[in-house]
């Protein structure tokens, strides 16, 4: 690419980023998953109920009692899981198409 007249930025943008796209997508998916399901750090650091994450809100929905409204909790848990259900197919398509483009068989 240097012989063909590409600058350092063009080499990075046109060659390195497309080759690293599967790794970038996978790192994004892992990071998004870990941040989305995080419970302990917000549980320790947050005290204002307006700032609670969805997992903490679901925990507080139970109210610390044995007699929780399970219909509402299951509906809330389903709503919390929806972004992950949409995120995985979107990133999987990009990840598998880039792996197939590299020529790896198996």
Task: Describe the 3D structure.
- The chain has four helices and no strands.
- It has 106 residues and is mainly α.
- The protein is 73% helix and 0% strand.
- Helix 1 packs antiparallel against helix 4 and helix 3 runs antiparallel to helix 4.
- It is elongated.
Average pLDDT rating: 80
- Note the overall shape: elongated
| Termini separation | 30 Å
Order of helices and strands: HHHH
**Percentage of β-strand residues:** under 5%
SS content category: mainly alpha
The biggest sheet, with number of strands, parallel, antiparallel or mixed sense and barrel status, is: none
Low-confidence stretches are none
Q: Roughly how much helix do the residues carry, as a percent range? A: over 70%
Radius of gyration: 21 Å
Number of strands: 0
By DSSP (H or I, 4+ residues per run), the number of helices equals: 4
SSE layout and pairings?
Blueprint: H1 8-36, H2 40-45, H3 54-62, H4 70-102
């Amino acid at each position: 690419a240097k012989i063909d007249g590409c600058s350092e930025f063009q080499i990075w943008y046109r060659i390195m980023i497309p080759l690293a796209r599967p790794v970038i997508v996978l790192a994004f998916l892992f990071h998004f998953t870990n941040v989305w399901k995080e419970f302990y750090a917000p549980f320790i650091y947050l005290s204002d109920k307006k700032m609670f994450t969805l997992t903490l809100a679901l925990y507080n929905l139970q109210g610390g009692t044995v007699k929780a409204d399970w219909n509402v909790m299951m509906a809330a848990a389903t709503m919390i899981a929806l972004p992950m259900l949409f995120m995985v197919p979107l990133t999987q398509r990009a990840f598998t198409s880039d792996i197939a483009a590299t020529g790896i068989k198996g």
